């Protein structure tokens, strides 16, 4: 999810499409939060780790 967010963010910047930039930022934040919760050992959606 984090990598998809970065790709959409870059596409939004290069193509000047604001919605892609916004979706990219949202996916980066969600991906970082899930990665952080998974690395702390907390189960995310029933899984011990998320990647």
Automatic annotation (TrEMBL):
InterPro entries registered for this protein in UniProt: DUF6131
Protein known as: DUF6131 family protein
What are the TM regions of this chain, as residue ranges?
Answer: 6-38
Keywords noted in UniProt: Membrane, Transmembrane, Transmembrane helix
